């Protein structure tokens, strides 16, 4: 017949005055709160109303709730009658941390002892007297003794009169529950290289970074979506893992810069949680899904290329045209491009940055010579400059001025981009946001000039109005253009189904009610 499986955690039946204890609130009464002392076999104690808070009590429910664990300090103990008075208001933040650490260790020991008692069919208090409480006296805490027992069991259990079967069961439980678990460490990095052999340079840099690995700290680099990568490792020693990864990142940066590439640390090495891993897995799954949709051979497969190349190129060209219209093209000294959502996650693979650069230089999907795009892009990267509308040369470093917002989308549409131009002093001259909605169509607000505080223009989308004659005209124009695209020989790769065309028309009409421009 099994013995009693509940017991206090410590040799003393009652806590001493001024001891910190963990309690669970069971009832709130007129005089105060009744609690159970979790470390002392759930004996009852009381927190008087005057000991709940130093401040005036307006709502007792905000201070203490039934079912919640609290750290309190012992004020008085009547061991004969079993009365224990406690205080919550006299506990500092340091006291709370200290008590929680001790309680968590005691709870781990208690769980192991409970399992062993049940398995060995022993009375739990007798097992504590025989095993745990002597270890508390010898090591300060039985948890610390159990950690030592992982490597030196004979040293820990020396002098204790316990059966061999009980010792074996205890050691099995200690190994299963207290063996250190590897800590996952991760860093997020962006790596780019626009040289002719850029891909090989990136691969070489990653190999050199992974070569920094230690037997206990294996470094691996994983692609998210170019140019975003994650560097991951598992290590028992958190600090050693972080230090090794920082060294790997330094080696990677030195290697890629030798090939005229660039590296930016988006998230420094740190220990990550399950939530962080889940977020990364969801991001990778979303990218895989988008890539699967792009690589499909259905009738609408051409529209994905339009979203990532034709639309962005037209958006860039329209932005430059607006700068000319506002007579500020000659004042522009630098440009910044922000890509959001899908354009950021999968844009490089589809040529979105290339398309934008060509559009900024005045090209259109019809006029651009595709065989020259790569050489022109390389030249822009080497010079850190591009020529707006083929007339105005400005500073532009693709590694710094082309920003990918992988975890952010603009509220209006997932395929968003923002263009900003600045003068010689670095003040904002003009900015606009564009949305590539498919079929080569782009929805945008009219380019706004900056005023004083250089604030980005954000149109009030809460104000709606019925479709205007202007909107109807835009819709008719879009419909005609879509028909031309379907039948045009200039862009044979574009295929637009009736369903997709209707969706584009609906999006254009919805946008037109707020008076944006639809740019063919």
From TrEMBL:
One of its GO terms (cellular component) is eukaryotic 48S preinitiation complex. Gene3D superfamilies: D-3-phosphoglycerate dehydrogenase, domain 3 (3.30.1330.90), EIF_2_alpha (3.30.70.1130), Nucleic acid-binding proteins (2.40.50.140), Translation initiation factor 2, subunit 1, domain 2 (1.10.150.190). GO terms for molecular function: 4 iron, 4 sulfur cluster binding; L-serine ammonia-lyase activity; metal ion binding; ribosome binding; RNA binding; translation initiation factor activity. It comes from the Eukaryota. Coiled coil: none annotated. Its cofactor is [4Fe-4S] cluster. Keywords: 4Fe-4S, Gluconeogenesis, Initiation factor, Iron, Iron-sulfur, Lyase, Metal-binding, Protein biosynthesis. Residues 18-89 form the S1 motif domain. One of its GO terms (biological process) is gluconeogenesis. Belongs to the eIF-2-alpha family. PANTHER family: EUKARYOTIC TRANSLATION INITIATION FACTOR 2 SUBUNIT 1. This is Translation initiation factor eIF-2 alpha subunit. It comes from Podila verticillata NRRL 6337.
């Amino acid at each position: 017949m099994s013995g009693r499986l509940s017991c206090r955690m410590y040799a003393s039946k009652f806590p001493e005055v001024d001891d910190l204890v963990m309690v669970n609130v069971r009832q709130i009464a007129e005089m105060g709160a009744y609690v159970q002392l979790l470390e002392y076999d759930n004996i009852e104690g009381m927190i008087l109303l005057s000991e709940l808070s130093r401040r005036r009590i307006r709502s007792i429910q905000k201070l203490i709730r039934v079912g919640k664990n609290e750290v309190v300090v012992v004020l008085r103990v009547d061991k004969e009658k079993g009365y224990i008075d406690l205080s919550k208001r006299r506990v500092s933040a340091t006291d709370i941390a200290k008590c929680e650490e001790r309680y968590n260790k005691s709870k781990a020991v208690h769980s192991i002892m409970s399992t062993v008692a049940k398995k060995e069919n022993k009375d739990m208090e007798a097992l504590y007297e025989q095993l745990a409480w002597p270890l508390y006296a010898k090591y300060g805490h039985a948890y610390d003794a159990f950690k030592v027992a992982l490597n030196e069991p004979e040293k820990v259990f020396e002098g204790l009169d316990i059966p061999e079967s009980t010792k074996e069961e205890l050691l099995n439980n200690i190994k299963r529950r207290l063996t250190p678990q590897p800590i996952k460490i991760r860093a997020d990095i962006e790596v780019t290289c626009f040289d002719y052999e850029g891909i090989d340079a990136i691969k070489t840099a990653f190999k050199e970074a992974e070569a920094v690995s230690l037997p206990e700290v294996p470094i691996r680099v994983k692609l998210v979506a170019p140019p975003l990568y994650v560097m991951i490792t598992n290590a028992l020693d958190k600090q050693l893992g972080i230090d090794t990864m920082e060294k790997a990142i330094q080696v990677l940066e030195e290697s890629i810069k030798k090939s005229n590439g660039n590296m930016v640390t988006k998230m420094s090495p740190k220990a990550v949680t399950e939530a962080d891993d889940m977020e990364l897995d969801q991001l990778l799954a979303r990218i895989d899904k988008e890539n699967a949709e792009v690589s499909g051979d259905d009738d609408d497969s051409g529209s994905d290329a339009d979203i990532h190349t034709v639309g962005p190129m037209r958006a860039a060209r329209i932005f430059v045209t607006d700068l000319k219209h506002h007579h500020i093209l000659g004042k522009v000294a630098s440009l910044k491009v922000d890509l959001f959502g899908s354009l950021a996650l999968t844009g490089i693979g589809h040529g979105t940055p290339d398309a934008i650069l060509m559009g900024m230089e005045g090209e259109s999907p019809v006029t651009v010579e595709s065989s020259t795009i790569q050489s022109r892009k390389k030249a822009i990267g080497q010079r850190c400059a591009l020529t707006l509308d083929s007339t105005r040369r400005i500073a532009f470093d693709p590694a710094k001025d082309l920003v990918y917002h992988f975890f952010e989308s603009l509220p209006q549409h997932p395929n968003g981009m923002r263009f900003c131009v600045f003068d010689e002093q670095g003040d904002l001259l003009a900015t606009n946001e564009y949305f590539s909605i498919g079929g080569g169509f782009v929805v945008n607000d009219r380019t706004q000039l900056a005023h004083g505080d250089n604030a980005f223009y954000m149109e009030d989308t809460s104000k709606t109005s019925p479709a205007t004659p202007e909107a109807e005209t835009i819709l008719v124009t879009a419909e005609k253009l879509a028909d031309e695209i379907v039948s045009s020989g200039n862009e044979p790769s574009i295929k637009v189904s009736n369903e997709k065309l209707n969706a584009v028309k609906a999006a254009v009409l919805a946008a037109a009610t707020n008076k944006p421009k639809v740019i063919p």
